[in-house]
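tl;dr need the bound structure. longer version: we got a ligand (magnesium ion) that a collaborator sent over and nobodys looked at where it sits. i said id run it. heres the input, straight from their email, havent touched it
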Amino acid sequence: MASKQILVVPGDGIGQEVTAVGKKVLDKIAGKFGHTFTYDEALVGHAAIEATGNPLPDETLAKMKNSDAVLFGAVGHPKYDNDPSAKVRPEQGLLKMRKELGLYANLRPIKLFDELLGASSIKEDILRGADILFFRELTGDIYFGEKGRKNNGDTAYDLAEYSRFEVERIARKAFDSARTRRKKLCSVDKANVLETSRLWREVVQKIAPEYPDVEVEYQFVDATAMLLIKDPKRFDVVVTANLFGDILTDEASQIAGSMGMLASASIGDGTGVYEPIHGSAHDITGKGIANPLASVLSAALLLDISFGMKEESELVISAVDKLLKAGFRSSDIADAGTPAEKILGTEAMGEQVL
Ligand code: NAI
Ligand code: MG
């Protein structure tokens, strides 16, 4: 029996709706296993800008640092998406959080529940058995380099930078993880064109001999984008840079059926942060139809990785599996054959998990 402090940071849009479900699931687990979980909440993103003018208030950051884990929602608001001139933006809160907490490794498991084989637009025989774990580097690359304008604003630039140290620490996490799985690692870069990618490949090649039991493959990112859809089963652990990982994992969400199914864990030197890979989804905000399973599965990752509660984590995943087996679907994972009474909203899906 353990005592843990969890910070819930729902953020914006459907982040509010799905995180409420993730939290209920954590609470249920605590009750079932006799753990004591205490919760606090904090602001981030648009909600934080409205309240304080800052997308990541110091108070939020301090609470994150003092918690055992963070259950995070999403940030974003339509008012910024079409206003490139906005200087203060919700995503700055996200990037600052990752940097300040040193969350350099973003784990994104792409696991297809068998019951959802029909929900994907990819053919069933290509999908069946696909199980990929992405390691996306999260605190470097073009997202954090110098950016700006020159030539009176007519030229814009974003600088991509990686250090040997940054590549090595994420690569080691991926190698270690590959050892516990099918012992296959695919390192994705664009080493034919980019200098940061050449360093990336050099570093991975240099440490690979320390993991003789892991088979390493090197791919260019454009080829990976194609192969993910053509033959997802060829991948086991994939390690890649921040920008490539961002794009490839949205693509890979179609292997799992929907963005609403994909959870992530961001880990580093301090508190771990657990969140769906999707954003605040303005198009469905307030409709009560967002799929909460990405948040529920993020809670499962939190239990496993930050708290070492394997059994508790597996119970959450099996609850998701059970409700899918029973035929329940949120609208994003329903297909033509799903009867109307089995299509549930966010809260009702949460009730089924509980
Ligand atoms: P999005 O991930 O919010 O939505 C993409 C599409 O997937 C939408 O059609 C949405 O309805 C659907 N979708 C996403 N999650 C779903 C769920 N749980 N259940 C059912 N359908 C779901 O990405 P989009 O639309 O490009 O961006 C919306 C806002 O989110 C923007 O302001 C963007 O900056 C922000 N964003 C934030 C992220 C974060 O906080 N980590 C990540 C990506 C985008
Ligand atoms: Mg993304």
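gonna send this back to them w/ a short note. The mean pLDDT is 96.
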